[in-house]
Design goal:
Subunit structure: Homodimer.
Number of helices: 15
Keywords: Amino-acid biosynthesis, Aromatic amino acid biosynthesis, Glycosyltransferase, Magnesium, Metal-binding, Transferase, Tryptophan biosynthesis
Strand content: 5-15%
Catalytic activity: N-(5-phospho-beta-D-ribosyl)anthranilate + diphosphate = 5-phospho-alpha-D-ribose 1-diphosphate + anthranilate
Helix content: 40-55%
Strand order of the largest sheet: 1-4-5-6-7
Distance between the termini: 42 Å
InterPro entries: Anthranilate_Pribosyl_Tfrase, Glycosyl_Trfase_fam3, Glycosyl_Trfase_fam3_N_dom, Glycosyl_Trfase_fam3_N_dom_sf, Nuc_phospho_transferase
Radius of gyration: 18 Å
Number of strands: 7
Order of helices and strands: HHHEHEHHHEHHHEHEEEHHHH
Cofactor: Mg(2+)
Length: 330
């Protein structure tokens, strides 16, 4: 077994790529991996470490072809707020607006219900969704890239993450290793002060346009509660700005208003949202959908983006898309 370096010391990008390559290749003892990940999380990962680790994961993933302009919308998880599945709903809404969405996700590692758990509770067969991902992405404009299908090297890591029950660098690596190779993303992270560090990692990897966002209360998506940190990453550079709900003509609401539960609970809430249910969950989805539509180049205006998302819900296009997806992924 390979010996890991001292996790209290920062790794360079190349060294991080090598270390995480060894972890993913099964060359490290599981107990040592757990201790290493815990210590890295405690002292906070650097942009070099995140970029290097993401490169290692990218080198080992099973990619798919995707249409031009495909996007992804996801959160890194681990924020401890246990909210309803905002990015999953946003993916359906944005796809219903005509933007191809290659949704990359997993089962819950440190939350009650991950994207895969909720979609499965809605009736989407995860195995079939994986087999038909390229077809549904091209024919319907949406797919779910179940991490275990495209990152086989993660098979032995997932149980370690679940045992730890904390956010680790693997939460941060996943969104940077989308198997569809998307060049436009909305990525939510759980620490507002960490946005520029994560944005720097994304800039090292390059992107057409990506928003890295975090709610002031540590939410891994754009929050209605107060304000949000946003890094606008284009190419190999980024700039920081502040975003609040009123920019999209949406009301403020506390995080507790979108508190979720298990997969069944979250699935019912998502289905109700797609059927037009009003409230903070809908508003949170509209705000994050607006951001994704801006990243996708469909609009440059927050209010217009929210209006486009609202129309996709109220016309039943998003609900019909979900039904078609479930039917096709058989």
């Amino acid at each position: 077994m390979t010996t890991l370096p001292d996790a209290s010391l920062h790794l360079g990008e190349a060294e991080a790529e090598q270390v995480f390559g060894a972890i993913l290749d099964g060359e490290i003892d599981e107990e040592a991996i757990g201790a290493f990940l815990t210590e890295m999380s405690r002292r906070s990962e650097t942009s070099d470490e995140i970029a290097g680790a993401a490169r290692a994961l990218r080198e080992r993933m099973l990619p798919i072809d995707s249409p031009e302009g495909a996007v992804d919308c996801c959160g890194t998880g681990g924020d401890g707020h246990h909210t309803l599945n905002v990015s999953t709903a946003v993916s359906l809404v944005v796809a219903a607006c005509g933007v191809p969405v290659a949704k990359h996700g997993n089962r819950a590692a440190s939350s009650k219900s991950g994207a895969a758990d909720t979609l499965e509770a809605l009736g989407l067969d995860m195995e079939a969704a994986g087999r038909t991902a390229e077809k549904t992405l091209n024919d319907l404009g949406i797919c779910f890239l179940f991490a275990k299908n495209h990152h086989p090297a993660m098979a032995r890591i997932q149980p370690i993450r679940q045992r730890l029950g904390i956010r680790t660098i693997f939460n941060l690596m996943g969104p940077l290793a989308n198997p569809a190779g998307v060049e436009r993303q909305l990525i939510g992270i759980a620490r507002p002060a960490y946005v520029p560090i994560y944005a720097a990692a994304k800039a090292k990897l390059g992107t057409e346009r990506t928003f890295i966002v975090s709610g002031d209360e540590g939410l891994d998506e754009l929050s209605l509660a107060a304000g949000n940190e946003l890094a606008d990453v284009q190419g190999n550079d980024f700039e920081m700005r502040r975003v609040v709900a009123v920019q999209a003509d949406l009301p403020h609401a506390p995080v507790e208003a979108i508190r979720g539960g298990d997969a069944r609970h979250n699935a019912k809430a998502l289905e109700a949202l797609l059927m037009g249910a009003p409230g903070p969950y809908r508003d949170a989805v509209l705000l994050n959908a607006a951001a994704t539509l801006i990243v996708a180049g469909k609009t440059s205006d927050w209010v217009e983006g929210a209006d486009m998302a609202r129309a996709a819900i109220d016309s039943d296009r998003a609900l019909d898309l979900l039904k078609s997806w479930i039917a096709m992924a058989q």
